[in-house]
Each structure stands twice: as structure tokens, then as C-alpha cells.
Amino acid sequence: METNEIKNKAKLVEAFLKDKGLVKQHIDSYNYFINKEIKNIVKANEKVLSSEDAHFYIKYLNIRVGLPDIDDGSNVMKSTTPHECRLRDLNYSAPIIVDIEHIRNNQRIRNTNMVIGRMPVMLRSSNCVLTNKSHYELAKLNECPHDPGGYFVINGQEKVILIQEQMVRNRIIVEEDGKEIIASCNSFTHEKKTKTSIVGKAGKYYIRNNMFQDDILITVVFKAMGIVSDIDIIQMIGEKEKYLDKFIACIENCQELGIFSEKQALKYLNNKRRQTRSAQSYAAKFSVIDEMKDLLAANVLSHVPVIDFNFRTKALHLALMIRRVIDAQSDRNLIDNKDYYGNKRLELAGSLLALMFEDLFKRFNWELKMIADKNIPKVKAAPFDITKYIRKDTITNGLAFAISSGNWTIKRFRMERHGVTQVLSRLSYISALGMMTRVHSQFEKTRKISGPRALHGSQWGMLCPNDTPEGEACGLVKNLALMAHITTEMPEGPFIKLMRNLGVQIIYTCVGGELIKKDIYVVFVNGNMAGIIKESLVLQLVHQFRLLRRMGYIDCFVSISVQRRHKCVQVSCDGGRLCRPLIIVKDGKPLIEEKHMNYLEMNLWTFNDFVHAGLIEYLDVNEENDSLIACKESEIIAQTTHLEIAEFTILGVCAGLIPYPNHNQSPRNTYQCAMGKQAIGAIGYNQRNRIDTLMYNLVYPQRPIVKTRQIELINFDKLPAGENALVAVMSFSGYDIEDALILNKASIDRGYGRCLVYRNSKCIIKNHPNQVMDVILGQSLDAITKKPIPKHDILENDGIAAAGVMVENKKVMVNKAVSTRSGNLGPSRSDNFQSQDYRSAEVSYKGSVPAYIEKVMVSSNAENAFLIKLLLRQTRRPEIGDKFSSRHGQKGVVGLIVDQEDLPFNDYGICPDVIMNPHGFPSRMTVGKLIEVLAGKAGIVNGKFHDATAFEGAKVEDLCEELAQHGYNYLGKDLFYSGMNGQPITGYLFFGPVYYQKLKHMVQDKIHVRAKGPKVILTRQPTEGRSKDGGLRLGEMERDCLIGYGASMLLIERLMLSSDSFQVDICNKCGLMGYNGWCQRCSSSSSISTITMPYACKLLFQELQCMNILPRLTLKDYCD
Amino acid sequence: MEAKSENPRWVMREHEVFKEYARETSSKATALKNYIQELRIEIVREEDKELEFDIIGCDISLVNAFRRILISEVPSMAIDKVFIINNTSLLQDEVLAHRLGLIPLRADPRLFEYPPSGRKDEEVSEQDTLKYELKVTCTTHPQAPKYSRLPEDMYRNSKVYSKDIKWVPIGRQGDMFPHGTEQFSVLENDILICKMRPGHEIHAFMHAVKGIGKDHAKFSPVAPARYRLMPAIELTKPVRNEDADLLQSCFSPAVIEVVEKETSSGEKYREARVKNARYDSCARNVYRYEQLKDCVKMTRISDHVIFNIESVGTLPPAVLFTEAVKVLKNKCRIFLAELEHAGV
């Protein structure tokens, strides 16, 4: 079918990102939490009662989160900015404000605007000061306009709550575990998290649930649920022979157990119950049977609502699970694929914070209750006022601690997760962005499983196929694709109603038999059975639903899909589903026409208008399964339902930087995704205002000549990380083997690859509780010359080094002194300063290469203590051993720096900046890089930036033609003259610009030598590691070599003399160690010999002696 | 074609370059003599910053020696030390110093000596050092046009240019060089050093010394010095009509001309002819076309070098070349002296 191409389709991607931003998932999720979810949570826990006073209560009427502010030191709150919090090591958080109603003195009192704690505020969320600010306003707030936000600032650190991947909840999943076929359902409600499984084993069907000790026959549960008649049970499961045959054993078994009535069944279940402490407390109040019923309702498929102990829906659900197991037993194809992405949900900051907050809020309420219980009985002058006892710390510290440590401990779900948050990597702009789109899987990293690691077809367009780390986390850590959107939760009530209106017979009117009829489809809303519908009406239902959605009557993120093999219709509106926008195709024609694109061009329409107009809709993974999506207009056939907006959007942020990725071998793109995050460049417009622990900047970052669409979309061209280098592909000097690069010295002289390294040095002047304060002393003067001692010579009079000063190794930057009496209580004599009360705690510079102080900040932190931060700067030019990489996973270290006159030059006198060995190409197959050279070259002769977007970049033929037109060889190969002998080089050189990234691994940070140096106190052996100036270990294997060779003296030298040789006096009589020529044991000095042994050996003997083991040394003459 | 056909050639094939075999005719005894006799230098184009000349009949290694010396051993003056009094601009001190160092100066290096090594920073001599000062403060413009938001209009000195660098005489330099301000100023006035905003200030003193490109690229007086071999294009078969136009398009403009011809039978046709191969870019794009592949022989004459010097601007390129010759001469002298010393 011929269809006209939509011009500038990629503009829609731009519009999408303009609307949503790059980290909309995080922000949306957080916004939903602080604006809606938090209200639901409070509503669910709105009353706090006291067991002491029946009249007493506290009721939360309303809750909201305010705007971020900080205490300015005098208990006055003032508005703050994220940057201030970063600099001053504060929390960027806002007060949580509630209106409450409570009883004081038997009177109902309303208090509004009570602060119960502080909520960390996500940057760029609805409550952040940065939202809807122009670039100019953001600049005023010291914030980079390209910073995506979506993270928190806790104690001055930027923390990201990572996206967690999880199995879907409340849906039936059929899986195979050994020989058993299990249909399980993870139920998840606000109160409970349970798992119910139907296990088919040995011809019978059992239910498996945490509340029972072992598997329970399913028929018993049915009976306990009030479906006593066997006929009823069979009716629910199926009257066909297939089902009857398989199920009859269960019915028989039930009769053998002697269970016929509901009561008998409940009693039986009660015996099988797992005994818990909470269960015992129940016993006192209710009868065993009622209690069991309660437990059944709450624990078995807890997401299925039970109203007035009517278990029918639950039973129907169970019956369906059994049917699924029976079906799967005969047809293995019906076993669900756990790696299918429709069965996954992504958990975001909002939902994680909601869990945390609910837990903390409950604890907060429990604390209030305890206080009330304790204080109400006491008779006091003033009536008991609960508001006086509200402590903000529980919630404030709980949230801040969870985010700063990453430990998510939710008591009610017995959930304990570590590493949920990470410090936002600010190595480069890309690394920060990459971190925001990262998806972490819950699977164990150490397990050798291939399924969850493999790329699954359903991840198309949702997750980046390239961006995953190598090694143990491979495939478990993923990245979102450019246009992927994660849904937020939505109330499901309206959709159940809507289903009824669209002709679905509601589930409560079903007896059971209807469900299993041949032509009946079951309709699920969020995994809950909503009703049934005739097969002939299914398509109509789905069509009407989609129509309503396209009209905008239903939220665009609600999905409906038909699962034919299960004969059901799934309607989903839960949170955490991945979905993506697609252009709707009708009758073989995409709905978007030129006029619509013009609206976009003229800024009349935003992306959302396309959605509202029903031209674009969001599909989640399940609904994608119901659709036929064309990649290009030319691929549209009659059945096509949707059209991709742009093909390159299947890639993520990091893979988007690669030019011509579709021409590269796939792993190379993966390597580049990892390396792009290590590239040095610009990290944000506010980089000069930041005081980070470590920051790398390029002096002259350039935007790549060969660009991709994504580069412009994510503003990489405004915050680049790399430089365009003229690269000649040739072999040169032998210093370029193993991917080493040759650099032109003149290029380096002119600033190529030059980078700045910023580090900070921090110092806190504490206010101790006993009124003692740490102090900063001035310079110490030399007693004789009256000049400052050398290590203090850069200090100013205030004891802090000044900005602009060069600091060398061991120079003191802040002459701090700590009070030695901080432990003592009681006020000290503050009148005279005594130096003996203080111990020096200087902040000095470590590092063999000097640095410059860029700026000094003196401020105060949250505890009102002085906070001094110094920003140190180093400028580095590339040296041999520094690591560089192109954008094609081709990394290499500098092997040689060559003078310009020695390098080859062409007719125009151009020398390469970088020489790369051609051996890098054949095995790596990075054809993309070859095309990048051509595109770059054609770009510079033409004065334009060539496009190299995946699947649509500039064509090679066109590039060649362009080169030929400008008098260059069409292959990109030029004649060069050797710089050394002046002759032409036999063979033309492939020559052109390639975008090279300087990676953070630099020789200066790794170089390590030691001759003599520090030793460990305990063993007297040399220290370990570069940071402690340690020695290089002659390890076990090296030792084995020397043993094999027989170099015994060398061994002695290496292992003892150069390490920890020690002279010990040994008594020849008793064989023990003596001291100073005297054996204490024998009380004599008659037969002492001095020998040399490793100190560690001597230590071992002494330690053995401490353990009542006596090692004796018997000495002999070496010559005997 | 001016080149004689027996001249040794480099043949440029589609994928390789190789030297055509040529019999060594000159005897060793008279080599130098022949050399001197046959060496020809023809100046083709001389402008104030650029010089193009042909060196004919000279071995390429000698030509390359001049190129190498021009790049790395002919001295020039450049800012080498920067004493920063105050720098509140956004540029880091080191970066500012680096940028200042790369600014070309007008000062003639022949007037100065090399600075002695191991001298302390503060000790300078009028013989070998030029002192410069840069002092710029950015302020808001009091009479800024009301509706302009251009930094140039709103602020004073929002951009620091190389012209802001001022020469400061040391010692008797003021008397020695009465025109010092022009003589030692920066070469280009509009090199942007830094952008500033109100409140920013740069105040720095700079010492410029004489140095060579080997130490740092900023001392290199050329940008660049290069040569290429004279291209020669031969048409081995006649190329006519459309092919002739195609052939013309494969080379740089004015390399191939198409002339109207007439066969003996009076039929008109157009044939390609090599007009002037000198300025061909030697892109070898003829080899793209199957029909033209075998019609052309592209070569380069190996003893005809087109030398091109582009000076940074301090000294005229011709002077630079003579300086380079002097450097080589000196080297030879030293070498001969060494040989003598060794007793050979």
C-alpha cells in the first residue's frame, strides 16, 4: 500500500520530550505521590484512638506538602533552592502539613497547618522551586536549565531512587517448577502482600499460601468459602470431560477427608494454619470459624474483594486458576513467559516513597497513641493536648535516612531492600541522564540465569537494546528507551462501571457455570474479574473502549487488550506499566496529516494535543500485542493499526549518542554506552558554582560534527563531552599496538584533550554540647625566624588558605583545632583560650601534583555548625597512558606523543591530531566509525553537521559524492607525506574527523611507585594500596615461580629483608624468644642466639603463646 | 608539460602510490655539482603572509628538512609566563594563561636573545623578555540602550580581546624601541580571550620570550609550512564528448579543458586535454568511473616540489625560509665541527 511519508516525524519526538522532559517518569510518579497518594494514605489511617479514653481521638482532615524551605538559624523558615542545599549539605525538603481534629478536655478542637514532618522534595516536581521556571530564572537560582531533575538532595548529596523492575501484581501467572505446574498470583493491597498459588501435582490440585503450613487440597478451600456442593465446584471449573477427569480426584480426596460442610472445612483449615503470634491474639475475641473466614478473606487472593463474607468472586478466581493449570498441563504453550515485559511493573520513586511514608505515618500514629495512653490517665493541671507531643523527627528522619542510605525497610510487608538509592553520578551530563533512566531488576546478580538477562521481544521500544553493563549485572540493569513512559496509578472503580455500561455482564451476577462456556470471555480490570462478555461482542467492546480513549473520555494511559488463548480481556490502569506513544493508522493511512505537523511547526500544538485529538495513543506492552505496528509508512498494510513515531526511539539516551549505530557490531554499541558515562566534558551550566567531591571538566568541549537526532534532543550539543579530532588511520612507530593512540604534540599544546579536575576539601567547625567550639587557628610561626612554618605558608590570617593559591603536598589548607574536652560536660571557662585544650586537626592537601584553590565557601550546615568547603582545581594536559575513546566502543590509551613535524601531512599541510592503528577495525567491525569519518569529512568541507541517526543517517553514497565535489577522494583516503623522510607514503591514509571522548581514567590518578615507605603497625610489613603509598606485593604465584627457579636468596630478600625482617633473641635451651640477650624463662643469658626472621612470624609465635600453644625453635648451625 | 619524462615519478593508482623505477644516471663524484647546477627555485606567488615557490631538482629529504625546521626550530616570540594579579573572570588562571600564550605577537624574534635557563621568574632582562599587561574590568554600561539585551550594549568590556594586551617596556626598552607599542603589539586585534560580566576583572602581567616550536607549538612561526609534489596527469587514450565532461569534473577546476575538434571526416567532437595539472587536488576520483579508469595516468614528479609557507604574520615567509636555511646551515656547521673533532 502506498502511503505518503509524514514529513519531519521526528519533530514529534522533540515535542514529546519538550512536554515530558527526559525523566518524566520519576517526576510524574513523585507528583502523584505528594498530591494524591499521600491523601489516600492518610485517609486510610485517618483516626488515632486511645485505648485509655474512648472519647479521645485524633482525626486527620487533610494533608499536603508545602514548598521547600530551610531554617535560617533562628527558627524562621525561609524558602530555599536546591543549589543552596547542595552547597550547604542540607536536605531539600518541604514541610508535610496536616489539618487535624482532636479532643482536648472533652472538646473537639481543630488545628490547621500542623507540621508533622518533612518530605524530601524531588527536583522539578510540582512542589520544587524550579518547576515552570524560564532559563533566566533557573540561572538566577544557580541551576542548569538542562538538568533533568528527578532526584533528591539529602545532606547536600544528590540521590536518585532507581527504577525497580518487578513482577506484575494481582495477575495470574502460570509457571513450571520442575514437574509441577503452578498458577500463582501475587496479591498486593495497601495492607497486605500475599502470594496464592494453585499447584497441580500427583493428579490433584492444591492451594499454596503462606498462612497454611503446607499445601491444602483445593476442594477444601472451596467448601470453606461456602461453595459446598460438589456440583457447584465442578460447574466453576468445567464440565467438560478434560476438566472432570483431572479434577475428580480432588473431589474424592475431599470426601475421604470427611469434609462435607463449610464448618468442617474451616475447622480443617484452622488445624493446618501456620501459628503466628498475631493469630493468637485473635483467638480471644472470635470463634475459630469466624476467625478462619476472616483470614481466608484477607490472605487468599487478598486483592479480590470480599463483601459480607461472600466468597464467590474469590472462588471464581480460584477456579479460573485451576482451569489454567489444567489447560497448561495438556498444552505447554499456555505456560506464561516470566520474562515477557507485559508481566513486569516498574516501581518508581513515588510508589517507593509512598510505602515508606505509610510505614512511617503508621509508626508516627502509634507513637501518638502511646503518648496518649500514657498521659491521659495522669491528672495534670493543664488538660492533655496531643498537639504538644507531635514530634516531627519520626517522619523527617525516616524519609531522609531511607533516601540517603538506600535501605528500604517496610515493616508491614517485611520488606528489606538495600541499594534502592544511589548518588547521582555527575561525571558527565550523560552519566547523570543515564542514571535517571536506569532500571534495576530484583534478580540476584550472582545467579547464572539467562532468561531475565536476555533481550526479550516485548522490550522493543520500551527498553534500550544496547545500554546494559557488562559482567555480572548484564541484562539485569537496563535503560529506558527515549519515548518510554511509565504509568501512574489510577482508580479502577470507574472502569468497572464503564465495563458494565459497555455490555459486560457483571461478575456478581455470575454463578460460575457461565464463565467456562465456550464463547465467553472474562473481563479483568487490574487482574480482578469484572464480568463476562460474549466472544462476538469482545471486539466491539475493545473497539468502543479504544474509541472512548482516543476521544479523551478515558485517560490515555489505560490499556485494554484481548488475550485470546486465555479467553479474556485485560483492562489495566495500575501504575508502573511501560508504555509508549504510537501514531494511529486507520484504513492503511496514518491519521497524522501535514496540517497537523504544521500546527506543531507553528507551535500551536503540543504533543498532548496529538493525543487528545486521537492521532497518537499510548500502548503498553500488552496492548502492543494486540496491534500491528509498522516501522515505516512504506510498510503499512491493510491490517496495520499503528505506526512508529521514529525508529531511533527504540534506543535510549546513551545509545543515542552513537553515530550510525546500525552499522556497528552490537556489543560495540554496548561498550560505548558504558564508556559514554565516563567521558569528561561539561556537566551542566552551573558546573562552576558546584563544589562536588570530584568533578571532571574539559577545557574546550566541542559538539560533535557528526550528530544524531538524540544529541539535539537531549541537549548533548549544549553540554558536550569530547572533541573532534582529525584522525588518520595508519600504523605509526609501533607505539600504537593494542589500540594505543598516537597524539600530536602541537594539538595538545593548543589545548586538545586538556581537562580540569575539581576536588573539594571539607571542614566542619563543630559546636559541642558543652559550649565548647572547635576553632580555626592562624598561622603557626617558626620560633626563630618568626615566619610561618612551611606547611602553613599558604594560610591567611584567618587560618584558611585563600582562593587562587597553589597548594602542594602536605600543605595545610584549614588550620582547624578540635577541643579535647568536648566529651566533658559542664561549661568551660570561656574567658581565656588555652591551647592545650585543643588538638590540631588540620585539613591538609594530599597529592603529588599541586592544585589551585578555586574558591572557599564558609557557611553553616543543618546543625548550625560552620561549614568550610574548599574547591581545588588541577589542569591536566593529556599524557602517555591517558584513556581516550571514540563513540564506537573503541577505547585506547595514548601510546606516544609525537612532535608535529614528525607526523604525516597531506597536500594542504594538515597533520592528524590522533593516529589510530587500522588493526582496530577488522575484528571490531565498527563500520559506523568509518562512516563517521566520511560524514565528518564531508561535514567540514561543506560547513555543516551531518546527521548519523540510527536507521536514517546520511547515506554513504551522498557523502562520497560530496567529498568528490570538494576535491577530496571519494573514499576519504588522501595522499600523505611522511613527516620524517619527506617521501609520499605508499598507500593512502583514511583521514577525517572523529569525535573523541577523554575518559576519566588518567595516569596521574593511577601512577604509583614506592621505594621505602610506610608500614603497618601490627605486622611491620609495607602498607597496601596506592592511597597509603603501599608497596607492590610479591604474591603467592610470583613466589612459586621463584621457588621453582630456586632463587632462594632472592626469596629471602623479597619476602623478609625488604619487608619485615626482625632480629629475635632465641634461647637455645628452651627454644623460646628472649630479649636483649636474656632468656626470662631460663633466667640465663648463657645460650642466646640472635636470628633474623619476619616480624609477622614472631608475631604469630607470640599469638600462639597467648592461645596456650607453645612454639619452640630449635636452632642448628647452618653448616652441619 | 614542463617536466621531462625521464624525471622519476610517483605513480598514483587507485589504491596505492609507488615510485616508478628510475635509473640513477648521475655519478656519485659529480653529484653535488649536478645538484647545484640543476637546482632551481622559482617563486610562484608571494603575498605578505604566504609564499609559494617551486624547488626543482632537489632531493625531497632536503626540502623536508626545511619544512621541519620552519615548524619547529625557527624561533618566534610568545607569552611564556603570566603573573596574575587578579582574575575574577570565569576563566581559570591556567586556562587564561594558556590562551594568552597562544596569541601571536608582532615582535621580531631576531631582536632578542633566548632566555637563559634556570632563571628565576622575577629576574628579567631587556635583552630577552618583553613585558605585557592586561587589565580589563567589566562594568555595566551607564548609558546602555534601554531595550537592548545584548551584552555588548549592556556592559563595558564584556569581551576581552587580544588588543587589550598592552606592551610595557622594561629597562631601557622604551628608549631602544621608540615604536615599541606598534612594534611589539599583538598580531591580531580581535582574538577573543574571555567573556566577562560586571564585577569581573582580569589583571595580569605577561612575559614573552623567544622560543622554538619544539618546546611549544605557540613558538612556531608558520601555520603551516608544507610542500607537495608537482602533479602530472597524462591522458593515455583520447577521451571524448560526455566522457570528456565527466573527466573534467573528476579533477579540480581548470585542470582539464575540453576542446572542440574535428575528425578528418569533418565530424565534430569534443576532446579532453590536460591544461594545467599544477593545482589539481589529486583526489583520484577518475578511478570511480570504469570507462575513464584506464585513460588516465596520474603521477607526481618527485623532484619538483611545490613549497608553501604560510606565516603567522610576524615575519614575511621569505624571511622565515632564509631563517630556516640559516638554522640548517648552523646545524651543518656544528655537525662538521663535530666530525672534525672526532678526527675523521
TrEMBL record, chain A:
Gene3D superfamilies: 2.40.50.150, 3.90.1070.20, 3.90.1100.10, DNA-directed RNA polymerase, subunit 2, domain 6, RNA polymerase alpha subunit dimerisation domain, RNA polymerase Rpb2, domain 2
SUPFAM superfamilies in alphabetical order: beta and beta-prime subunits of DNA dependent RNA-polymerase
Record-listed E.C. numbers: 2.7.7.6
Molecular function terms from GO: DNA binding; DNA-directed RNA polymerase activity; metal ion binding; ribonucleoside binding
A single cellular component GO annotation: nucleus
Enzyme class, spelled out: transferase
Keyword Cell inner membrane in record: no
PROSITE patterns: RNA_POL_BETA
Domain DNA-directed RNA polymerase subunit 2 hybrid-binding: 654-1028
Annotated signal sequence range: none
Record protein name field: DNA-directed RNA polymerase subunit beta
Organism in which the protein naturally occurs: Camponotus floridanus
From TrEMBL, chain B:
GO aspect biological process, one term: DNA-templated transcription
Domain DNA-directed RNA polymerase RpoA/D/Rpb3-type: 50-338
Source domain of life: Eukaryota
InterPro entries, per database record: DNA-dir_RNA_pol_30-40kDasu_CS, DNA-dir_RNA_pol_insert, DNA-dir_RNA_pol_RpoA/D/Rpb3, RBP11-like, RNAP_Rpo3/Rpb3/RPAC1, RNAPI/III_AC40, RNApol_insert_sf, Rpo3/RPB3_RNA_Pol_subunit
Database matches in PANTHER family: DNA-DIRECTED RNA POLYMERASE (PTHR11800), DNA-DIRECTED RNA POLYMERASES I AND III SUBUNIT RPAC1 (PTHR11800:SF13)
Pfam families tied to this protein: RNA_pol_A_bac (PF01000), RNA_pol_L (PF01193)
A cellular component annotation (GO) from this entry: RNA polymerase III complex
First-listed, main subcellular location of the protein, grouped into a coarse class: nucleus
Name the record gives this protein: DNA-directed RNA polymerases I and III subunit RPAC1
Subcellular location: Nucleus
Family note: Belongs to the archaeal Rpo3/eukaryotic RPB3 RNA polymerase subunit family.
